[in-house]
Design brief:
heterodimer; A: about 100 residues; B: about 220 residues
Chain lengths: ~100, ~220
């Protein structure tokens, strides 16, 4: 279990990182719809991911409307790939034993 | 940030994780706009080619065949532009915006190569078909090819409504084989498949707009 990244291992954060891994960047509204989390919950998990250096948050405008863009950093991408590998390894070990 | 043992998350399998990563792909078709625009373009293509065939041989017909192919090529770019503008106006304010990852140079080259090969195969089919008197098989063959393409798209994007379009393409191919329409069967196929795709797209767009009102409407 030593390879499991604790930041990503939390279910809501794993969901966020997995969704962002499939895109270049997305806005807060898309992530809110896709994750099914509440605004407050999503914000707090994003703050934690940003603090860990896994997610980059850019506050900008589209016309006069505020737009919060979210993207995985290089560290975030490699952490997710590592997590996926680690989980795959654990499952393989589990089924082998 | 590594942990030793605690399992806060139920172990998620790599397959489930891949499924989550694939969800953005499905978002492109969530609103019906791409099907609607594709349908309109196909109807325009098929209709323009049928009209050209129906024109009497004259200077007007020659001018038509000089201008229309450029307009048809241009229509593909216009449809792409219109799809993006419609998404900006209708989809992004309702369910959010996302930008897809760059497919990379290798994938772009592969896609370009596939398009060129498909065009070459179609051209070869027409040229050899004319010589071999295969005019009644071209339409049905195209129907089967398009039907398979819709099945692949349905599986890859987990979009069951593409199966309905696959069924329509196959049914049209079979119908045109029975009607023996000759080369015009390909144009009729584009017209009717385009109409079907537009109807499916418009219905999906209407449903999407109802299910996702803007904040001002709620």
């Amino acid at each position: 279990m030593s390879d499991i990244d604790r930041v990503i291992h939390e279910p809501a954060r794993l969901l966020i990182v997995a969704l962002l891994h499939g895109v270049k960047q997305a806005d807060f509204l898309w992530l809110l719809h896709e994750s099914g989390l509440t605004k407050g919950n999503l914000s707090s998990h994003l703050a934690k991911l940003e603090e860990s250096g896994y997610v980059e948050i850019e506050k900008t405008f589209r016309g006069k409307i505020p737009l919060t863009l979210l993207r995985l950093t290089r560290a975030g991408r490699s952490a997710f790939v590592g997590y996926r590998k680690a989980v795959g390894g654990l499952l393989a070990k589990g089924s082998g034993s | 940030m590594q942990t030793s043992l605690h399992m806060e998350a139920p172990v998620t399998t790599p397959k489930e994780l891949r499924n989550l990563e694939d969800r953005p792909k499905r978002y492109w078709n969530v609103d019906g706009i791409p099907e609607l625009m594709m349908g309109l373009v196909w109807t325009l293509w098929g209709g323009a080619l049928l009209l050209g065939d129906a024109l009497p041989k004259s200077t007007g017909a020659r001018a038509y065949w000089l201008i229309v192919p450029s307009i048809l090529v241009l229509s593909g770019f216009v449809a792409n532009w219109a799809t993006r503008r419609l998404k900006e106006r209708l989809t992004y304010p309702r369910t959010g915006y996302l930008e897809y990852r760059d497919p990379g140079r290798g994938m772009r080259l592969l896609m370009g190569l596939l398009v060129m090969l498909s065009a070459a195969a179609l051209a070869a089919l027409i040229v050899t078909g004319r010589a071999a008197g295969m005019e009644h098989t071209a339409g049905p063959v195209l129907g089967v090819i398009l039907s398979l393409a819709f099945v692949v798209a349905s599986v890859r994007q987990k979009a069951p409504h593409f199966l309905a379009l696959a069924g329509v393409a196959l049914a049209l191919g079979v119908a045109f084989a029975a009607l023996k329409l000759g080369w015009s069967a390909m144009n009729w196929l584009f017209v009717w498949l385009g109409v079907a795709a537009s109807v499916v797209g418009a219905w999906r767009l209407r449903r999407y707009l109802r299910q996702h009102p803007t904040e001002a409407q709620t």
